[in-house]
């Protein structure tokens, strides 16, 4: 990882600021509102504006997916350190109801989950941890659920 990228990961506030000003996020209206100092959690929101509303008056499905795309990968990279390879492997999204207004997603990466991943990759094997991320509207109703699979392996 080059020096400039490492600086983006240097602190939770630096990561939050970098992601919130990342051009694809700015253009979609996505904002990272919280990253825990220990990189154990993050919260992201997508506010509805004229420029991110589709033909039928709801959030674009692609924007709903974009808001959750990199976060488990980034949190896990930071928690595991530079001795691991972490990639997004696959994802799917299930649209439950139309998304309107402000929608939010929360990510939690527990110590137990990190230790599980360390244990499963200790011998150099790949591991494919999975998460479900709920995207909720302002009233707490489920708008969409994203299923993410990461690829993790200890560097040789």
TrEMBL record:
Superkingdom per UniProt: Bacteria
GO molecular function: translation elongation factor activity
Keywords: Elongation factor, Protein biosynthesis
Family annotation (Gene3D superfamilies): Hotdog Thioesterase
One family name in Pfam for this protein: DUF4442
InterPro entries: DUF4442, HotDog_dom_sf
Protein name: Translation elongation factor P (EF-P)
Lineage: Bacteria, Pseudomonadati, Pseudomonadota, Gammaproteobacteria, Pseudomonadales
């Amino acid at each position: 990882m080059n020096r400039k990228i490492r600086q983006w990961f240097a602190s939770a506030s630096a990561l939050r600021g970098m992601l919130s000003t990342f051009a694809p996020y700015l253009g979609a209206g996505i904002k990272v509102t919280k990253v825990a100092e220990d990189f154990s959690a993050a919260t992201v929101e997508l506010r509805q504006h004229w420029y991110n509303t589709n033909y039928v008056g709801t959030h674009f499905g692609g924007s709903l997916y974009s808001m959750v795309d990199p976060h488990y990968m980034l949190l896990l990279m930071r928690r595991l350190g530079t001795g691991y390879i972490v990639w997004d492997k696959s994802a799917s999204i299930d649209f439950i109801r139309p998304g309107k207004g402000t929608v939010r997603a929360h990510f939690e990466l527990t110590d137990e989950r990190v230790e599980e991943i360390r244990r499963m990759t200790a011998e150099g094997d790949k591991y494919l941890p999975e998460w479900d991320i709920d995207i909720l509207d302002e009233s707490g109703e489920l708008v969409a659920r994203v299923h993410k699979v990461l690829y993790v392996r200890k560097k040789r």
